[in-house]
């Protein structure tokens, strides 16, 4: 049976108003601030992602926008898949801020972020990702809300699922395996940290058991 990813506790939804987003998975590494429904995004140099460098970038970014970090502020981290070291550094920095400033910590992953722009269609969604030459998917089903499974390796039968949407990262859209999907069902994922709002609204961020998403 598929294991569903836990969503954010609805009681905590009101906490996620102003937040810092950390995305250091090795591609499009960025930090972002959502303040009073406005987004401010800063690109990072991937080859410089280290504890001290990331902490300094965040400190300067927060200072630039005159943000006060406290227990009304949240930090949302991309847990992968991607650079294992980048994700671990993100978690370490977020944990340090949480201990000192009493902030709240949440997470999302690339499968969910890629699917976020298509949640309004309320169809079954297969969000695909390639890592270590293998293809994985998370399946999202909609009832009264969306629930997504944990990542699993692709079975070609999955790609024939009728009525489903397949969210494909741009870098694999021309791969041979994608030719097994009806082109009408394909949607190309666009990286946009502002779509974190859609994950929050659909209660698809996690607030417990936060750890790097590692695909073997």
Question: What's a concise summary of this model?
Answer:
This protein is 20% helix and 27% strand. The protein is of the alpha/beta class and 216 residues long.
Q: What is the general shape?
A: globular
**Tally of extended strands?**
11
Query: How many separate domains make up the residues?
Result: 2
Low-confidence spans: 1-13
**Ends distance:** 20 Å
Task: Give the CATH H-level superfamily of the largest domain.
Answer: ATPase, nucleotide binding domain
The major sheet is characterized as: 6 strands, mixed
Architecture overview:
The protein is of the alpha/beta class. It folds into 2 domains: 10-110 and 192-201, ATPase, nucleotide binding domain (Nucleotidyltransferase, domain 5); 114-189. The protein is 20% helix and 27% strand. It has helices at 51-64, 84-101, 110-115, 196-201, and strands at residues 18-23, 30-35, 38-43, 73-78, 104-108, 125-131, 134-142, 146-148, 152-153, 165-169, 186-189. The strands form 2 sheets. Strands 6, 7, 8, 9, 10 and 11 form a 6-stranded mixed β-sheet that branches. A 5-stranded mixed β-sheet has the order 3-2-1-4-5. The longest helix is centred in the middle third of the chain and has 18 residues, at 84-101. The radius of gyration is 17 Å and the shape is globular. The two termini are 20 Å apart. The model is unreliable at 1-13 (pLDDT under 50).
Write the layout of secondary structure elements.
Elements: E1 18-23, E2 30-35, E3 38-43, H1 51-64, E4 73-78, H2 84-101, E5 104-108, H3 110-115, E6 125-131, E7 134-142, E8 146-148, E9 152-153, E10 165-169, E11 186-189, H4 196-201
Parallel strand pairs: 1-4, 4-5, 6-10, 10-11
Antiparallel strand pairs: 1-2, 2-3, 6-7, 7-8, 7-9
């Amino acid at each position: 049976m598929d294991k569903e990813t836990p969503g954010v506790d609805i009681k905590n939804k009101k906490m996620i108003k102003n937040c810092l987003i950390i995305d250091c998975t090795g591609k499009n590494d960025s930090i972002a601030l959502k303040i009073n429904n406005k987004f401010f995004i800063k690109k990072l140099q991937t080859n410089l992602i280290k504890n001290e460098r990331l902490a300094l970038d965040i400190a300067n970014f927060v200072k630039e926008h005159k943000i006060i970090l406290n227990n009304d502020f949240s930090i949302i981290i991309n847990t992968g898949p991607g650079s294992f070291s980048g994700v671990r550094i993100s978690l370490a920095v977020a944990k340090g801020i949480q201990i000192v400033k009493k902030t709240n910590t949440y997470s999302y992953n690339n499968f969910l972020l890629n699917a976020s722009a298509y949640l309004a269609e309320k169809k079954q969604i297969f969000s695909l990702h390639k890592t270590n030459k293998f293809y994985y998917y998370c399946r999202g089903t909609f009832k009264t809300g969306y629930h997504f499974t944990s990542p699993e390796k692709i079975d070609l039968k999955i790609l024939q699922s009728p009525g489903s949407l397949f969210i494909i990262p741009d870098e694999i859209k021309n791969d041979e395996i994608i030719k097994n999907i009806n082109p009408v069902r394909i949607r190309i994922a666009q990286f946009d940290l502002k779509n974190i709002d859609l994950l929050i609204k659909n209660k698809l961020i996690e607030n417990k058991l936060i750890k790097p998403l590692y695909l073997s």
